[in-house]
Amino acid sequence: MGSIHTIDYVVIGLYVLAMLGIGIVATFFAKERDDYLLAGRRLKFPLFFGCMAAMAVGGAVTVGGAQRGYQVGIAGVWVGGSLGLGLIVLGVLISSKLAKLRALSINEVIERNYGAGARLLGAVLTIIYTVSLTVVQVIAMGSILSLIFPNLTLTLAMVISGGVVVFYTFLGGMWAVTMTDIVQFVIKTLGIMILVPIFLLTNDSFGGLNGLVERLPASHWDPWSLGFSGTLYWILLYVPGLVIGQDIWQRMFTARNEKIARTGTILAGVYSMLYGLAAVLLGMAVLAVGAKPDVPGETFALGVELFLPPGIAGLLLAAALAAAMSVASGTILACSTVIYNDIYLRLVRGERTSGVEPAADDRVALGTSAIEREVHSADEHRVTRSDVWINRGIALVIGLLVIGLSVVIEDIFKALDLAYAFLSGCVFVPVIAAFFLRRVSPKAGLLALVLSAIGVAGSMIFGETGQAVAMFGEEAGADWVIGGNYPIMVGMAIGIVVYTLFTVIDPNKTVANTEIDEAAVDTLPPADGETHLEDRRA
């Protein structure tokens, strides 16, 4: 990145300072638990859509998308395309139910249907997913920053960029994530989705779109060049994971009502597809002019240097940082929420759920006086505010742990594969079953989680130790390692078989529980043009 202009450094510097400033300002908004974890559950459509779109596309789609475009061509769009498809499926199938739940984590749904043991195991698997996904983003941020500032080692660049995200997430929680995500959404949309295609298609070095077509091999214009197995891999990796991802669910819980949640999520899926295509085209353009990045991960930054003028190049690099920061802040917060809600509250405090105050008429029926209610409310207020600092502490520890793991791993796609393999392979089947079956078996849910987790981990060990290659040969053995199809497929197959079998034979099935907590309806912000539940019943 030797030709980066001074103005680009200024643009990037201003962006980083803005993120830090927003984190400080957001501290004044994050006064209670729901403010810190869920931005008060009251985002309207523009904010919700921008934040969901920013949350969806991170370093894997931006830096990884350009890398895939360079290596395999237009088929690299399956990275962002599968992610977008997952959001669309989520929006169409279960977004309305999710928006109504007074939940903090996916594992509350697991406990409602499969018991406390299943919730704890689900929490462990979710922590693996969120930590691994955050590592992906920190590695991406470090690779970009180290190219912008050649004197920085990759390790130091990851520490600095990761530290910025940890700082503003620690201070402001979901309000900081929301405000930074909106800034990042604007930068990413302007930089990646608008300016990249414009500058590529008007560039004289390869003659625009026609020149791009002529200079690249035909295989680079084949969306199915990865073959059935390669294409299926990205669909299996992203679609189930996006439908049940804690980071995505937590963002869903911030919507003001279910209509906003559904529409915003579906449109964010479309946005992800278009964004992924723009990143892939940049990588293809790098190959078209014959440029060769030192390592594949440098493709995005090299493309920015080659095709964009000073100032705009800085904006694009800031956009790439923004993409990774959006996801990193969201996944750090998601991981800390799971630890707080599913481990701390459940095991330390012994609370069955996230703790919702009974509805007003229930309190009256119990004979609670106005004075007693005021005292209880004051106690709740103090607990909620102290919990903000508990959540901040957890977020800080998770952030520092992630930075350390990023320094050790230094591989975007390996961390990404690890993240989604456990989520898609283990958690997807029992959670989705709870939304679509009328009756569920707690035993089936718990066993499906346990055995599918063993299946995913065992498949990875089988591949990584070389036993798969020794048994099946080099080509087939590659499907068993981290990043292969088989760990996810084995996990999902075990989950489906075990869940189906024990659901059929279990005589003690219970009614599936994914309904809104009626006691908490009065605390939900009303939809536009609506009143609270008690007024609608009158």
Structure described in brief:
The protein is mostly helical.
Molecular structure report:
The chain is mostly helical. The protein has helices at 6-26, 33-38, 45-56, 59-72, 78-93, 95-100, 106-114, 116-148, 154-201, 208-215, 227-244, 246-252, 258-288, 299-307, 312-349, 360-365, 370-409, 412-436, 442-464, 467-472, 474-477, 485-505, 533-537; strands spanning 439-440, 510-511. Residues 354-382 and 518-538 have low confidence and may be disordered.
Keyword list:
538 residues; mainly alpha; two-stranded antiparallel ribbon; 23 helices; 2 strands; Sodium/glucose cotransporter; Sodium:Solute_Symporter; globular
CATH architecture heading: Up-down Bundle
Major sheet attributes: 2 strands, antiparallel
Query: What topology, given as strand order, has the largest sheet?
Result: 1-2
Given this structure, which CATH class is correct?
Mainly Alpha
Please give the domain count: 1
Write the layout of secondary structure elements.
Elements: H1 6-26, H2 33-38, H3 45-56, H4 59-72, H5 78-93, H6 95-100, H7 106-114, H8 116-148, H9 154-201, H10 208-215, H11 227-244, H12 246-252, H13 258-288, H14 299-307, H15 312-349, H16 360-365, H17 370-409, H18 412-436, E1 439-440, H19 442-464, H20 467-472, H21 474-477, H22 485-505, E2 510-511, H23 533-537
Antiparallel strand pairs: 1-2
